[in-house]
Design a protein that fits this description.
By secondary structure, the protein is an alpha+beta fold. The chain has one domain (13-234): 2-Layer Sandwich (Pseudouridine synthase). The chain has helices at 41-52, 81-92, 168-176; strands at residues 13-16, 20-25, 62-63, 72-78, 97-104, 112-122, 127-131, 139-151, 154-161, 200-208, 215-219. It is globular, with a radius of gyration of 18 Å. The mean pLDDT is 92. This is RNA pseudouridine synthase. It comes from Hymenobacter lapidarius. Belongs to the pseudouridine synthase RluA family. Residues 19-174 form the Pseudouridine synthase RsuA/RluA-like domain. InterPro entries: PsdUridine_synth_cat_dom_sf, PsdUridine_synth_RluA-like_CS, PsdUridine_synth_RsuA/RluA, RluA_PseudoU_synthase.
């Protein structure tokens, strides 16, 4: 069996122990399988673990959260059922701090603040609509944002979602601030990026280890893509 070629420690593999596998997901890769039949991150992770530990059968990989296919950045996978169960509870109850970086074509006004919407997902069209008033079918969704600065001819925003809804950051920035994410034509940006990704990156995740209870912080390097080059100066 050939070793999966997308994995390198420190780049794609951010952390691994007996219970967790933390991946810096490339844009364009599904987290979990869908109707397209394309190989997802979960399958690649299982192959990686099977190869690394010379397992005769399938390696256990549990998916406890997802980021959208065109989005890059941190995905936490569980290697044990105990970790999966506890991570599912943590993500459901928002018991962690998630930080995203997003590039937009214009600065947000105001430059920092909180957005609250009620989001309704159209599963047929795979698009989410945001309502500023309470909606009977909507899920309350909240995020905090701040402008970090100008990155070339784009603007770099730091976003901390309080809730975790499908397409939440994408639709809230587009609807609440009229600042669609660069490349996100589904939510109003004028043109796609050459690699068909969108300029949204799950940059940092802080959580308590589901088994050891240790406080952990994971940080994912930005993708090697030209549209992110000017944002690298904001590394701390």
């Amino acid at each position: 069996m050939n070793r999966p070629n997308i994995w390198s420690e420190g780049r794609e593999i951010l952390f691994e122990d007996n219970h967790l596998l933390v991946i810096n997901k490339p844009a364009g890769l599904l987290v979990q399988g869908d109707a397209t039949g394309d190989e997802p991150l979960s399958k690649k992770a299982a192959e990686y673990l099977r190869f690394k530990y010379k397992k005769p059968g399938e390696a256990f990989v549990g998916v406890c959260h997802r980021i959208d296919r065109p989005v890059s950045g941190i995905v936490v996978l569980a290697k044990t059922s105990k970790a999966l169960s506890r991570l599912n509870e943590m993500f459901r109850d928002s018991l962690m701090t998630k930080t995203y970086w997003a590039l937009t074509g214009k600065p947000p006004i105001p430059e920092n603040g909180t957005l609250v919407h009620w989001l309704v997902k159209d599963t047929v069209r795979n698009v989410t609509k945001a309502y500023s008033e309470k909606h009977s079918q909507g899920l309350r969704s909240e995020l905090h944002y701040e402008l970090l600065g100008q990155a070339g001819n784009r603007y770099l925003l730091q976003v901390n979602p309080v809730t975790g809804r499908p397409h939440q950051i994408r639709t809230q920035l587009a609807t609440g601030l009229n600042t669609p994410i660069v490349g996100d034509v589904k939510y109003g940006f004028i043109a796609p990026l050459p690699d068909v990704s969108i300029a949204l990156h799950a940059r940092q995740l802080q959580l308590q280890h589901p088994v050891t209870k240790e406080a952990m912080t994971f940080v994912a390097p930005l993708p090697d893509a030209p549209h992110w080059d000017a944002a690298r100066e904001f590394y701390k």
